[in-house]
Amino acid sequence: MRPSLLDPLFAPATSLPGVGPKVAEGIARIVPSTGLDDEARIVDLLFCLPSRVIDRRDVTTIADAIPGTIATLRLRVDRHQPAPRAAKNAPYRVFCQDETGEIALTFFRAHGDWLVKQLPEGEMVMVSGKLDWFNGRASMVHPDAMAREDAGGLPPIETVYPGTAGLAPKTLRKAIGAALERLPDLPEWRDRSVNRDDLSEAPPTFRNVLERLHDPEEPDDILPESRAWRRLARDEFLAGQLAIALVRARLKRHGGRSFISKGAGPDAIESVLPFRLTEGQKTSISEISTDLAKPEKMLRLLQGDVGSGKTVVALMAMAHVAEAGAQSVLMAPTEILARQHHATIAPIAEAAGLTVAILTGRDSASARQPVLDGLASGSIDICVGTHALFQQGVTFHDLGLAVVDEQHRFGVHQRLALSAKGLNPDLLVMTATPIPRTLVLTAFGDMDVSRLTEKPAGRQPIQTASLPVERLSELAGRLEKAVADGRKIYWICPLVEESEQSDLVSATERHEWLSERMGSANVGLIHGRMSGPEKDAAMAAFKSGQTRLLVGTTVIEVGVDVPDASIIVIEHAERFGLSQLHQLRGRVGRGAEASSCVLLFRGPLNEVAEARLKVMRETEDGFRIAEEDLRLRGEGDLLGTKQSGTPGFRVARLDAHADLLAEAREEARLILATDPELSGPRGEALRILLYLFGRDEAVRLLRSG
Ligand code: ADP
Ligand code: MG
Residue 309 Cα, ligand 1 centroid: separation in angstroms? Predict the structure, then answer.
């Protein structure tokens, strides 16, 4: 249970004055929610840090202000001169003065009542904006900010928050101010004798740093390098590392087990494979079997570009575990992928004498029951599925290994979900994201890593070309020939952010258009709005060759495998990110046939889009593409996360705070060495820290022991 002390912070943001559902939605867009749902909480506002400040500390005079630049002035309001009724387009002017002269504040389409309230005659006001001179008279058109001095004037430093699209900065600032007022006094979780940047001053408290960041005294206060931000980063890293360390400690407590295989299981698989393993696959397989044989739990990440052949590595690991008498699961992120994994794995594994099943959320009760029975009795060796595998009602006879195919999302969450269910199998996480080593550390903690760096032999390079959409008909003509030659083609239409509707329309429209040209029997359609069985049918028809051209949205991005598909057209390629283009292109080039990729774009291209298409034409190397992607989009975007911090973090940033990471790991280790259950007074405070940064799954582990 969350300590009640934190309740005010976890109340919905809408409980703040001035925050309605729309504002809350805007907030949720800027900062990912700490809560389990997507609802914005008050605590989320606290972690929404300013990106820059407007510095108004230098108050100047009308005479001294530099024309054409932003000036902050202290003025006395002399008189209002509303626009004459007849001249609708004439401005409303407010004449003000200071000791150096007169200035006209000029407003177009102004609301006179409002201006009279803002700038009452005879009052002293502070005004900030661009000052200009016309015909020897100073004027300021639509000042950026105005405030009466009796109401406190303008803040000398005003914070500006990132990405407040659709959210008035003032509204956000107010909401954050109100959120700060809800911040209760929290016990200190820092050991104040260590990790200090500056030993001469008392280290700032959590409250201090939030107040400082949201209400800075100096512009530098809001830099990531500032003491305040560094303390927050330390806190967040500590929470993350503590969570990871708690998972580890629990895994250890439950003891690992050693799965012994003489190699018969894996050998049986290898003998029925239609190809020879690459060196990288062999190395990874041997690293994994070594882990499996050890009495400790395995926690290993298998990194390999799309098409590098991760599935067979997983299969060998599962065969190893089966030989040792235990069960394995392979969990896929989507239904399609789960079915596809099953379709690939089952014939091979069954030929090698293993029993394979599939379990997804979509199965009928009658299909489900025998699988549940087989899992409980132990007659099923390998079960492929979605997260339905870990839902209630699923019990395993003896689960030894969980393989999680994460494609290109990642997190410690699955691991925690497993542990929370009381399951503690060895764990192999597969990802196609070429995550840099430092990110592996932050997101996964101390995971061992195996990498597949080469593609299976016999693969032909993929020819990649870009083509303006004006040449659509010409392209269609060429594709007609290709279809006549018996080739299979993917045609991808973009998924327009947050607009399933328009994505759907473009895919169906294109499907219709292509059906007319190529004959509707040849052209299939697949998209996210279709039901599961409809999607399966579309995939199956394409796989079997009944349809030759499959029009789809990015549903087919994730790992879909039709080895004899050899052409992919990506429409509106300019809208896709580099790693997504790479993932999509990876759908072809999987067989022995030479493949091609056509990036169909609608010009004019901006610089970044142009650079992306160029990289795509130049290389197929996933690591190079990831690097370019990083360069073109900034680290935060690499994994498609929306926050400004490093992926998986809310305020900490690897670029500015990397030095704090190792320190946090060490500290987490020390803490758990002295107080493994976090039960002392500092332990209590640390639990609060875990909740604050959304690492509370780890707290649950403590209790369930
Ligand atoms: P990914 O790493 O993207 O999950 P897959 O495991 O789906 O890749 O493998 C992609 C394709 O390559 C599959 O059709 C698979 O059968 C094939 N494949 C895997 N390993 C080899 C190999 N050593 N030689 C030839 N083909 C292979
Ligand atoms: Mg795969």
Answer: 3
